[in-house]
């Protein structure tokens, strides 16, 4: 097992040199890439470049099943949700926006991942995502001209994967005004209407194919279990996830109907995660109640 992993990593640089030599001359055709907006679940290293961020994925265990097994900026042992979806579609993995080596050629070949630990739907963070994306668009227009740029941005895939921070690190924390200003339902309406305006803004900027990933059973994360009297999942929090997912599905269907040539797809992660929590033995998780999901080291 160890040996095959090592072989893979030595082959990679050779492959990359080969690909650079064989790069086709760019004509009018543009490649299909992904732009990813999200939180820690799809971060591929932006948090590592934010030296003042509290949420850092530079600790052991992160990355143990990825590349050379060292922490790589992902808040996971292996691939993120966005990695898995993109790999499935055969699209290149976009580099982190804050990667110092990011340039216009890399963006044209691979897209960009803006996701960062702590990101959310409410305007404080999502407006920043939109601003960064607008900067990227400016750069690409200068490079390939407005017409090719329009084509590039309309063919691209957009993955939006956030929402849990808006609840877990805002609404559900009594230190913030949102927790006593809103009820569960009115907070969800507020988040959904913000998501509505942000997705329309993304469409106005040229995005046509958008996938949005909803919330998992947030009440089962260790922090929420601590707040329940018996250490079990906190049902009131899981109800918030379900209510949000239901409204988000409706919103995405509405947007697809209203906005010409658009496709807004909802990715439901709830049942998938619930299965893992209910039957950890069926998957390879051995504990779902500790501060990390523990997977056996030898597989
Ligand atoms: C959030 O941003 C959107 C789009 O820019 C705007 O329409 C909306 O009013 C903002 N909401 C708040 C609460 O600031
Ligand atoms: C979706 O559209 C329906 C029908 O117009 C409307 O009743 C509903 O409130 C909309 N939901 C969202 C979340 O936009
Ligand atoms: C929708 O697609 C058609 C055909 O590609 C195109 O002519 C039209 O301008 C598009 N409309 C919008 C709003 O993107």
Number of domains: 1
Class in CATH? Alpha Beta
Low-pLDDT residue spans: 1-27, 283-299
Quickly give the CATH architecture. Answer: 3-Layer(aba) Sandwich
The proportion of strand residues reads 5-15%
Q: Please, what is the oligomeric state?
A: single chain
Order of helices and strands: HEHHHEHHEHHHEHHEH
Number of helices: 12
Shape, please? globular
Mean pLDDT: 78
What kind of sheet is the major sheet? Answer: 5 strands, parallel
Question: How would you describe the overall organization of this protein?
Answer:
The protein is of the alpha/beta class and 299 residues long. The protein has a single domain (6-298), classed as Rossmann fold (3-Layer(aba) Sandwich), CATH 3.40.50. Helix content is 48%, strand content 8%. The protein is built from twelve helices and five strands. It has helices spanning 2-21, 46-49, 81-88, 104-110, 123-144, 146-155, 164-171, 177-181, 184-204, 222-227, 235-258, 270-278; strands at residues 34-38, 111-113, 157-161, 209-213, 263-267. Strands 2-1-3-4-5 form a five-stranded parallel sheet. It is globular. Residues 1-27 and 283-299 have low confidence and may be disordered. Bound molecules: 2-acetamido-2-deoxy-beta-D-glucopyranose (3 copies). One 2-acetamido-2-deoxy-beta-D-glucopyranose is lined by residues 260-261.
């Amino acid at each position: 097992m160890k040996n095959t992993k090592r072989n893979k990593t030595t082959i990679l640089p050779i492959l990359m040199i080969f690909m650079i030599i064989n790069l086709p001359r760019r004509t009018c055709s543009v490649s299909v890439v992904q732009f990813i907006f999200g939180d820690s679940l799809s971060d591929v290293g932006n948090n590592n470049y934010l030296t003042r961020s509290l949420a850092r994925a530079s600790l052991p265990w992160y990355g143990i099943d990825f590349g050379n097994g060292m922490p790589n900026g992902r808040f996971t042992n292996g691939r993120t949700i966005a990695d898995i979806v993109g790999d499935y579609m055969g699209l290149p993995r976009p580099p982190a926006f804050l990667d110092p080596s990011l340039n216009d050629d890399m963006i044209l070949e691979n897209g960009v991942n803006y996701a960062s630990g702590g990101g959310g739907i409410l305007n404080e963070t999502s407006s920043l995502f939109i601003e960064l994306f607008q900067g990227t668009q400016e750069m690409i227009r200068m490079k390939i001209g407005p017409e090719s740029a329009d084509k590039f941005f309309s063919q691209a895939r957009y993955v939006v994967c956030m929402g849990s921070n808006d609840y877990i690190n805002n609404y559900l924390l009594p230190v913030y005004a949102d927790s006593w200003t809103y009820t569960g339902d009115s907070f969800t309406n507020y988040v959904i209407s913000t998501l509505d305006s942000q997705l329309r803004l993304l469409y106005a900027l040229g995005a046509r194919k958008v996938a949005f990933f909803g919330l998992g059973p947030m009440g089962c994360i260790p922090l929420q279990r601590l707040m329940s009297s018996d250490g079990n999942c906190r049902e009131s929090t899981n109800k918030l996830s379900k209510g949000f997912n239901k409204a988000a599905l409706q919103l995405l269907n509405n947007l697809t109907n209203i906005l010409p040539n658009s496709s807004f797809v909802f990715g439901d992660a709830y049942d998938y995660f619930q299965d893992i929590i209910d039957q950890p033995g069926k998957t390879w998780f051995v504990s779902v109640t500790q501060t990390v999901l523990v997977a056996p080291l030898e597989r």
